[in-house]
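Supplementary notes (optional reading)

For those who missed the lab, this is the record we used. Protein: ATP-dependent Clp protease adaptor protein ClpS. Length: 93 residues.
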Amino acid sequence: MTVETQEETYTLDEVLAAISPTHRLILWNDDTNTFDHVINCLVKHLQYTEAEAEKIAWKVHTEGKCAVLEGTYTEVDVYRKILKSEGLTVSIE
């Protein structure tokens, strides 16, 4: 009996993506920002459509928070800084 094996190759990016933990950027409800400002920031910086951004803003308002982005810590932290500079309340989980 013979056993055949097939060799698989992966790029460095594929390997790192498989082992890198995923972090989430959380947008929190606050009493400072308007719906319009939150929606505009999500469209401008995260390329959400206006309809998607409205749903997120409503979820944040009713549930207190919403994950708006997933990725490596470095990727997520860039957007945390951008949204924070716009006055939004954000954190990384």
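If you only remember one thing from this example: The chain has a mean pLDDT of 91.
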